[in-house]
Design goal:
Layout lengths: L2 H6 L2 H18 L3 H25 L5 E4 L7 H8 L1 H5 L2 H7 L4 H9 L2 E2 L4 E2 L4 E2 L5 E3 L4 E2 L4 E2 L2 E6 L2 E6 L2 E3 L4 E2 L4 E2 L4 E2 L4 E2 L4 E2 L4 E2 L1 H8 L1
Parallel strand pairs: 2-5, 3-6, 4-7, 5-10, 6-11, 7-12, 10-13, 11-14, 12-15, 13-16
Antiparallel strand pairs: 1-9, 8-9
Helix pairs in contact: 2-3, 3-4, 6-7
Length: 211
């Protein structure tokens, strides 16, 4: 682990302290300043840090050997999202507000279309690595993982690639999409469908899965 990796591993704690500070201030004295400060601490601070990080770092997609002493840009992005992965209620609140969660993912850098329906318990672990077309529906407890760690003899390989979902797709409850997954437009994924690493799901391949 490089020096920068060690430093960024403290970001989740720093983020929590900012949130706690403004929350206590809000409880002690309710004001617009404290309310806006709390919202900034929860949602905007990590995005600003992420964008600054991306300005000085290499792209986060690709294949990385974790045992090498070389900085992996995905690690920083992962740390900026750690609080949301650990406390999913912060994301769930946004999914209750029409359009808010889609806008939130766009701020992270994802490409999100219009009229997306996110059920409250959808799990997106890599918020900057989603491409979603218009009129997509995500079922209950759908999970999208744009990274995976592969164990090989004497080393660990991290693979990171964005997930692409076409227009008018229905993603059935409990489905899981791995890094590099592509779902063609107009498809309907059944309950508990797994789209594996780099799998391109077309109408023909979806019929084979259902057989």
């Amino acid at each position: 682990m490089t020096y920068r990796s060690r430093l960024l591993s403290f970001f989740p704690l720093f983020h929590l302290l900012w949130i706690a500070g403004f929350f206590l201030a809000l409880c002690y004295h309710f004001s617009c300043f404290n309310l806006l400060g709390f919202i900034f601490a929860v949602y905007l601070l990590p995005i600003l840090c992420m964008r600054l990080h991306h300005y000085f770092s290499a792209p986060i997609e690709g294949t990385f050997t974790l045992t090498e002493r070389r900085y992996c840009a995905w690690w920083g992005t992962h740390q900026f999202q750690s609080v949301f992965n650990a406390i999913p209620d912060f994301d769930a609140i946004l999914r209750l507000i029409p359009g808010a969660y889609s806008a939130w993912l766009r701020l992270w850098g994802s490409t999100i279309g219009k009229r997306i329906y996110w059920t409250p318990l959808v799990e997106i672990t890599d918020r900057s690595l989603m491409v979603v077309g218009d009129d997509v529906i995500f079922g209950h407890k759908v999970s999208c993982f744009a990274h995976v760690i592969i164990h090989k003899p004497d080393k660990l390989i991290l693979y990171v690639k964005r997930i692409t979902i076409g227009k008018r797709v229905f993603v059935g409850a409990g489905s899981r999409l791995g890094p590099g997954a592509i779902v063609d437009e107009g498809l309907s994924l059944k309950f508990l469908t797994d789209v594996k690493i780099n799998q391109h799901l077309t109408e023909e391949s979806l019929c084979k899965i259902g057989e």
